Batch of 2 targets.
Target 1
Amino acid sequence: MLQIECPWCGLRDEPEFSYGGPSHVTRPTQEVSDAGWAEYLFTRANPKGVLRERWRHTFGCGQWFNLARDTVTHRIVEIYRMGDASSDE
Amino acid sequence: MKSRYSALALLKAAMFPGGGTPAWTECEPKTRYDIVIVGGGGHGLATAYYLASNHGLRNVAVIERGWIGGGNTGRNTTVVRSNYLYPESARLYDFSLKRYETLGRDLNFNIMLSQRGLMLLAHSRHDLETHARSANAMWMNGIDAELLSREEVASRVPLLDVSAGARFPVLGGLNQRRAGTARHDAVAWGYARAAHSLGIDIVQNCEVKGFLKGGNGGVCGVDTTRGRIAAERVGIAAAGQSTVLAALAGFQLPITSYALQAMVSEPVKPCLDTVVLSGATGTYVSQSDKGEMVMRGALDFYASYAQRGSIAVGQNVIGGVISLFPALGHLALLRQWAGIVDVVHDSSPIISGTPVENLYINCGWGTGGFKAIPVGGWTFAHLLATGASHELAEPFQLQRFTSGRLIDEAAASGIAH
C-alpha cells in the first residue's frame, strides 16, 4: 500500500487517493492534425521508471496535486502542487 | 514430434519408468531467422506454432527475457469466454474459444479445458437491462448466451448469498455455457512443444536491448543479451512491456501498463463448479482443480511495472468475494500476485503493423489476454507471414486511434478496467 504525503493534509494511506494519470499533458491548438489529436487523446507517457502524475486526495481535502513516482519500485520521488514546476523542469 | 502423448504412451512410461524425454529443448540462438518473435508468453508461442503449421515458416525463433509462460500467461485466472458486445470482438474472441475447444487434440497436449460456464451476476434492475442487451448482442453474433432468473442462479451456485438481506442482492444472471477455464501453463507448454517439434527455436533468458535497423530505417533484427540476431521481420508480443520495446524501436503506443492482481485461497473440496463474475463488487471467482478459490478484481489504478498487487486493492477484492460468498470468509489466503497488463483506451487489442517497417506488434489485450491466445497467435502469424492483416484482425490496427473507429469494449466484461 502506498503512503502519500498530501501537500495539505500530510501522510495518508493509498485508499484515500485517486489516480489522475500523467501530469503536464498539454492540449493542442485547433490546428492540430488527426495524428496529433490522436496522440493527445490516447498516447500517454508509460515509462518503466519515474513518471510524473496527478493524484487527488479524494477522501480527504479533495485537492489535486502532482507526484513523481517510480513505476517499478513505487518509490515517491517528489510531490508538488498543481501549477508548481517539477524540480527537473 | 519426439513422442506422441497418449494413454498407451502413459502406460508404457508407467511400466518402464525413467524413459521420459523433455517436451522441447532449449536452443542457442542462430545469427539469422526469417522471423523473430519477442516474447515467449502464450501469444508469442502460439504465433510461432501457427507460423509453422498454417504458413510453413519454420526458420523462426521465439526469444524470451525470462522463462516461457512466466509473465501474464502464468499469472491470469485461466478464464476463457467470448461474451463480448460488438461484432468485431465477438468474431475475434469466439474464434479463439473455438480454437480452445480443439486445442488439446491439435497440440497433442492436455490443456485441461473445462467449459464450466461463466455467470455474470445482476445486482440491480439496471444490470438486468444491461444483461438483456448483452444477451441479445451475443445471440445476434451467433454466440451462446442465456439469461437466468434469481432462482436459477441460486440453484446453480448454492454457495452464493441470494438472501433478501444480502449486501449485493442477486436478481439474475447472464450465462455463457461454453465459457470456462483452461490450464494456463499447459497452454504455454503445449504451444511450445508443438512449435518446437515443427522446427521453431525457443530461446529463454534472452532480453532485447535494441532493434537493428537497415538502410531504409526498417528493422532487420534484434540486439539481445545473447548477441545480435538478424531477421526479415520482427514481431513483438510482450503485453505490459510493449511500450518499453516500442520506445527502443523509436515509436509510441496508446498503452498504459497496470498491475492486475489475482489470489488464491487454501484448497478446499469442490464447492463451485462455474465461474462467477460480479460487476458491482468487481470480482471474478472460480475454483481451481486443486481446490483453491481463484479470485480476481479490478486493476491497481495507477501505472505500474511492479509484478505485485497493492494490498488496498486486494482487500477490496476479498471484501467483494466474501459479501457474495460469506462461507469463504473462513478460508486463509494462500498466495497473491500480479501481472503487468497493457491497457488501451477502448479495451480492444492491437494486432498491427507499426510506424517502423518490418516490425509488427500484438498487444493491448489488457486484462483479458489469456482467452485470446489462439486467435492472437493465429492472426499475428498471418500478419507476420503475409505482411497483410488477417480478416479477423483488420479492425484492430493502430490506425483506429487516428480514424476514431474505436471498438469500445471497455464495459463489456462487466468489470471496470
Target 2
Amino acid sequence: MMIAAADERELVVRAQQGERQAFSDLVSTYRQGVIRVVYNICGDGYQAEDIAQEAFIRAWQKLPGYRPKASFRSWLYRIATNAALDAQRKAKPTIDLDTVQVADPSKGLEAGLVHRQRAERIQQAILALPAASRSVLVLREYENLSYQEISDTLEIPVGTVMSRLNYARSKMRESLADMLEAV
Amino acid sequence: MNPHVTNYLHAYYDGELQPRRQQQVAAHLAECQACRQALAQLGSLSAVLAEIPAHPAKTRPEQFVAQVGLRLPRTRSMPLWPRVGKLALHLVPAVLFLAVAFIKSTAVTNNLLASIGLLDLGGESVSALLLEPQLDFSPSLPAIFPDLGIIEFGDYLWNNIASYSFFGIDLTHSLVFPLVLGGLAFAWMVIWWLAQKNNPNLDNLS
C-alpha cells in the first residue's frame, strides 16, 4: 500500500502526537518492506515478523524524536535494520527451510528441491557478509533504495555506501561463482 | 578516465551516475568487451539474489497491524535531550526557591551573629567567626574593570543604585531582589507555556 507524501507527513505528525490509528496506518503501509528488510538481513524466516513488530514498537517509542531530515521510510528502515542485526547477534542465525522456499508443485519435486538448495546457499552467502555490508546490499538489491536513501537510512556517507556495496557484491560473486557461471 | 570504467560500473549499473558520466561510461561499454562482461556479471548477481523467495507471511496484514497495536506501550519514553530539557524546566522553580531560601537564611544568620557579637554574648568564638576571612573565588573581569572581580563588581553596582526611600525604607534595594526573582519566574512561565504549545503531549510522555 502506497500513500502520498503529504498524507504520510500528516500521519507521521498525528502519530507523533500519540494518535494510534495514524501509526497503524503507517504500520500497514510499511509492513511488507520492514518484514522484507528484517528477513533478508537476519535470515530468520520464522522470527522475521516478530522482529518486524519489535521494530515498529521501537519506532513508536522513538517517534516523538523523529525530525523529517530524512524520509520516514529511511528512518523506519534504520530501526528495522538495527532490530534485525540485534536479533541476529542474540541468536545464531538458522535457516528455516519451510520459510526459505515454498516449492512450486508445477516444477516437480526435484526442481523444487534444487530451487530450495539454491535459495539456501544464497541466503547463507548473504549472512556470511559483515553486518555493515549486508545491510547496504539488502537495502539496494531487495528494497531498491538509492545510494542517498541508503546513506540516510544507515547514517553513513554516500561514498561509504558505494564502497560497502562494491565489497558486498564482490564477496557475493566469490561465494556464488558457480551459480553465476550458470546464469 | 581509466582505460576501463571499473570504478564507475556499480554506480552505472544502479543508475546513480550523473548524466554526463553515464554517457561516458556507456560510450566506453560500447567498445570494451571486458567492461561489458563485468556489467553483465552485476546483472547476473542481481538475478541470482532475486531467487530468494519472498518471506511467506505467517499472519494476515490486518492481523499484523492489530498485533503491533496491542503491543504498543500506553506511554512512550522521550528521547534523552527533550527529557533533560523537561527535567530542567521542572527544576527551575525549585532552584529559584532554594536560592531565595539560601540568601535569606544567610542574611538572617549574619544578622543573628552580628547581634550576638554586638551584645558580646558569644565570647571570642563568635567574634572569630565574624572576622573569618572570605575565600576569594571570584574570577576577574579584565576587559571591563581590570581591578574588580565579579563579586566586587556586583557590590559596586549594588551600592551605586540610586536609592529612593519611603518612610525610612530603602525601596530600591528592597525591590531589586523581588523584581529579579519575579522576572525569572515570569520567564520560566513563558518558556513553560511555549513548550506546552509546541508539544501538547509533553506531560503524556514519560
